[in-house]
Amino acid sequence: MLLIVGLGNPGIEYEKTRHNIGWWVLDLLRTKLTGLNLRLLCYSRVYELKHELKKEVDFIVYPLTYMNNSGKAVKCLYEPRMDLVVIHDDLDLTVGKTRVRFGGSSAGHKGVSSIIDALGTDSFWRVKVGIGRPFSKQEVINYVLGEPQKNEKEVLIRAADYIADQLCLLITDRNFSRFQQNINSFNSNENN
Fold it and tell me: Where are the coiled-coil regions?
């Protein structure tokens, strides 16, 4: 079973912000899938995708706890037999750069840190989407909670759409090695 979690903040005022790139990916993923059932549980909007042949259910999750408390929602849904994939923004990657890694520290991302603390492990997949970094450290909060410029937004949408396509393949074949390789080699400035 896959537990695919997009990190973001609930509310219309956060919808188009850089910090909500995890939700952008899930929104695009949902347009590519059929047979999703929506449920509200565990402080989250949860879409279930049932696989009749495999007798499995995958979950696409939008935590409604706000970014820094995402661990509360994930802990409520997570079971050890699940493959957890967390999609989030990354200030240290250039705009549109994508990276997948398994395990490791939160690298200062408070949403990821909340999940690590809640689960007591860092053993899960992270899909990082670069949003770049503002010029000044004092501007970080306004930057991540701000909307990207038009050209920046186009690059982020290309990256989010590519990740959504790769998640569709992962849902089908569970090939994490290919998933990681494809996303790590993607260049949103070249691929249209």
Answer: none
d(CA 34, CA 134): 38
Task: Report the CATH number at residue 168.
Answer: 3.40.50.1470
Q: Which two tokens stand for residue 3?
A: 């537990």
Question: Which residues make up each annotated binding site for tRNA?
Answer: 14, 66, 68
User: How far apart (Å, rounded) are the C-alpha atoms in residues 66 and 51?
Assistant: 30
Strands (E), 11-166: 36-41, 44-51, 56-63, 83-90, 98-102, 125-130
108: containing domain: 2-185
Q: List residues with catalytic annotation.
A: 19
Instruction: Count how many domains the chain has.
Output: 1
* Residues in binding site: 14, 66, 68
**Low pLDDT (below 50) residues in the chain:** 192
